[in-house]
Write a structure and sequence with these properties.
Elements: H1 4-26, E1 40-42, E2 45-47, E3 57-61, H2 72-78, E4 83-88, H3 99-111, E5 115-120, H4 135-144, E6 156-159, H5 173-186, E7 193-196, H6 207-218, E8 224-230, H7 237-249, E9 254-259, H8 270-280, E10 284-286, H9 312-319, H10 324-327
Parallel strand pairs: 3-4, 3-10, 4-5, 5-6, 6-7, 7-8, 8-9
Antiparallel strand pairs: 1-2
Helix pairs in contact: 4-5, 5-6, 7-8
Length: about 350
């Protein structure tokens, strides 16, 4: 008969091994989920560090092409937005925004009590668009400017890459997105991450919709938000509602990261987008403050960066039904913080405009 004093350690060792394998799978312990240090996702909702629900109401700003327009951040806040999505570049297609510039953008967002969604635009339409870069390269950029982002998890959401894959080979989106998320987590990023859909952001082939659950599960922090861009594909209320309702029903966090009132690929139903976002309590970020090229200049919310010259699209988004002024609530992280009306500081880098 074997001695019980020899058997017990062996049994304990086996049990410890099994427990070590089960803990990550069951989602218990620090190895499966990092302790939230800022924004986090829970039950399909985006929450602030204190557990308050946060619903984005804001616009996009083309900082990388117009770095001298840094005062636009304060102007966007004055229109009652609670979030600004800021266009940055990693240098593969447009001039790189360096660490100091990223830190300045974050500072200006905080100074103006806005949540800052930062995105790399060079990934736009990869596979279709000449010069576009990969999500892996975008992740490398975020790692290179990490010092500007560490400690800002309550104020900054990292949108890994804008519209990262076009229509060619869009099925690669799932694997590429998982790999980029994991690269950032392995590099020590604790931020909420945002991922854009393929098909130039519009997900008309439903690759993001149908694979969102597996992408979310691939994030060991379970702290990823999905972003769809709604232009001509979403030209009816039925299409808008069906797409957004599916995410909400699955308890997967979704925002409309870009949308407009018109577009070259069709006429989006902006009223339906705004109404659905309000009904479902999900975020939206209109495209864009100002500076669009002549072919899509109708998407400017203000004329020539002048906050006193709202376009018809600007009037609709800021002041219309379910618009920003009527529905935006400032992030609670700013509660008790001193307000400022001082002019914004000049940019720290000089970058070529688009």
């Amino acid at each position: 008969m074997k001695s019980s004093t020899r058997t017990a350690p062996r049994v304990a060792a086996v049990l410890a091994t099994l427990l070590g394998l089960l803990v990550p799978l069951l989602g218990f312990g620090t190895s499966a989920h990092a302790a939230p240090t800022g924004f986090r996702v829970q039950n399909g909702r985006l929450l602030e560090a204190n557990g308050n629900d946060f619903v984005m109401r804001g616009v996009n700003h083309a900082h990388t092409w117009y770095p001298s327009r840094i005062s636009s951040i304060s102007h966007i806040k004055a229109k009652r937005a609670n979030t600004v999505r800021v266009v940055l570049a990693n240098g593969d297609r447009w001039a790189r925004n360096d660490t100091a510039d990223v830190a300045n953008v974050v500072s200006q967002c905080k100074r103006n009590r806005l949540i800052c969604v930062l995105e790399v635009h060079d990934t736009t339409g990869y596979g279709d668009q000449s010069g576009a870069t990969t999500l892996s390269r975008a992740a490398d950029y975020w790692i290179s400017v990490k010092s500007a982002l560490t400690g800002q998890e309550s104020y900054v959401i990292v949108n890994i890459g804008n519209e990262p894959i076009g229509n060619n080979n869009a099925s690669r989106w799932t694997a590429d997105t998982k790999a980029a998320i994991q690269k950032l987590r392995n590099a020590g990023f604790n931020h909420t991450l945002m991922v854009d859909a393929p098909n130039w952001g519009q997900d008309w082939s439903f690759i993001m919709r149908d694979n969102a659950a597996s992408v979310f599960a691939a994030d060991r922090d379970r702290n990823t938000v999905f972003s769809v861009h709604m232009y001509g594909v979403y030209n009816t209320a039925a299409k808008v509602n069906d797409y957004l309702n599916r995410f909400v029903a699955a308890k997967l966090p979704i925002v409309v990261g870009e949308f407009g009132h018109n577009h070259s690929d069709g006429n989006p139903d902006e009223d339906a987008i705004l109404a659905a976002a309000q009904r479902l309590g999900i975020g939206y970020l209109g495209w864009s403050w100002s500076g669009n090229g002549s072919d899509v200049q109708y998407l400017d919310l203000v004329t020539n960066f002048d906050p006193n010259r709202l376009t018809s699209w600007g009037q609709r988004l800021f002041n219309g039904a379910n618009g920003i002024a009527a529905t935006a609530k400032e992030a609670s992280v700013y509660s008790g913080a001193a307000r400022t009306t001082a002019p914004a500081a000049p940019p720290t880098t000089s970058l070529a405009e688009r």
